[in-house]
Amino acid sequence: MVKIILDAVIIYGAFVAAYLLRFDYLSDLFPPAQGIFRSYSETLLLVVVLWLAIFRLMGLYEEKRSSDLLDDLALIIFSVIIASGTLLGFLFIYRGLWFSRVVVIMAAVVAVVLMWLARFILKVSRRWLYSRGVGRYRVLIVGAGEMGQTLALKLKIDKAAGGVPVGYLDDDPAAAGKTIEGVPVLGKISIIKNIIKEHQIDEVIFASDNLPYKRILDIVTECEVLRVKFKIVPGILEIIASRVNIEDIGGIPLVTISEIGLTGLKSVFKRALDISSSATLLTILSPIYLLIAILIKLDSRGPVFYAQERVGKDGQTFPMYKFRSMVVGADKMVDELEKYSETEGHIFKIKKDPRLTRLGKWLRRLSIDEWPQLFNVIKGDMSLVGPRPPLPREVKKYSPWHMKRLRVSPGISGLWQVSGRSLLPFEDMVRLDIYYIENWSLWLDLKILIRTIPAVLTASGAF
Fold it and tell me: Is the pLDDT of residue 96 over 90?
């Protein structure tokens, strides 16, 4: 309701501002015309109602607790275009409705900016209130395994996310009565209805791959009856659901899974975009490349660039280029340092890696050491966006389903980098990569590239 009221005020204000711009401040830039404000004011309330109705139809007011601001911007732009086009259509059909077309276009631009700004302020305000304990909601996690524990830990660390982990439900006898990271296991899943009522739960999150779908549906039904929100941490079947098609043979329904989305013309378009963007970036950044090369030579002995063997599309290996951030012979020290790795799964990373040079610490922290991979993009080994290329020794430890992340060209940036980077467990990283592969779009690539900038500047999860 708050968004609707704000948008109504913004639409009205945008049209008034556009009128003043057209007929008062910028009148010399347009053909002479006589603006009659009374003609606008009489119909402006109808325009506001029309635009709000279209915005609702476009899904602009659907409740999303953690909506993406970039998605909000795209939806706002699209909704305003539809609303403006509808209004211009009415103006063309009904000549009696006098409204300057220039004013409509100006109002649309002003409305987009102010509506997105209002949502940004609302989101920042909500996170600020959450971080101070105001309005936070109580979360029950179904599944006390690795996935559930990771979720609970993130909710506890990021108080501004709004969720308070109250407890787990798990049928594993080994988990009964335990308290994990300060969050207790409250009992078995069968008592979920009582737990929701007793602990005043606002949201239930399924974080277990071990529950049969029939049982999940039963729990979802319980949540709906009790008016409790529910979410599911997706497994592989849920991630590939976008490629599921139903057909039948002799009346027997069959579920078929089509090829991954990043093929054919989409792949060609992505490649063309990679080449043009990388060539432009290399031209612009070339003076900085030269400066970094000089600093690396002054800081420590050894080459400027470092080529490391990585695994790319379909398991093919290639040399991945980086600015050298470690001492010469760093690879030979991996075996003795591997026991100190601070990430889960098959990835080796240490926050205070003794192999880093003085300059290398900053190159790694700001991800500048990755810049030479633009040459890999030009060569075709990599893409600007995609799963990060693993080391051969990491791939040897992969399970069969992990190999799916090698179905497309690896990227300089990806969902993993903008979602926590080294703070994410390996299994979560693979799920994010598979989600990207299954749901690729130009908009998704653009969002990841935009979100990469603050992730790099804040060094979020980088080490």
Answer: no
